[in-house]
Amino acid sequence: MLNRIILIGRLTQDPELKYTPNGTALVRFTLAVNRKFNRDEADFIDIVAWRGLAENCANYLGKGRLVAVEGRLQVRNWETQEGQKRKTTEVIADDVRFLDRAGTSNRGSVPSSPEQSSGSDWEDLGREVSLDDIDIVDRKDEDEIPF
To answer: CA 26, CA 52: separation in Å to the nearest integer?
Structure first.
């Protein structure tokens, strides 16, 4: 059985750092992930990270930052003080990769062509790739290693 999830999206608000009674760091944030076929729609997914990863997220992430999250899906059930049953689904992060530089969160649309880009290597991140965007290299010597 396998429970792995990988998401790329933007934080909807600054991460919320807390500590458990025994001193373990815990951070929560929500990730907005665009849907593939309709960029006007997004899914908002709750993310939880623990320990050192939690402290790094709290120190270096903020609203609008682009991140990749890898982890596992977890469903929790609990009961409120009033006796109402509640259920939540969240991703427990094992790894969070920062995909843009601090202070450069691009909340607008991604350029649709290279000509619209202002020259930053990061602006095309997340843009769908078509075959027209790929340079095909004709290798004449098959014994040569390409790297």
So the answer is: 9
The token pair that represents 118 in the structure block: 């202002």
Three-class SS state of 99: coil
Does 88 reside within a domain?
Answer: yes
Tokens representing 18?
A: 């807390």
Q: Contact 48/28 with Cβ under 8 angstroms?
A: yes
pTM greater than 0.90: no
Domain that holds residue 26: 5-107
Domains of the chain: total:
1
Which residue's entry shows tokens 């790894």? Answer: 95
**What are the tens digits of pLDDT across the range 97-142?**
999 876 655 544 333 334 444 445 555 555 555 555 555 555 555 5
What are the strands, taking DSSP E only, across 1-65?
5-11, 16-19, 25-34, 42-50
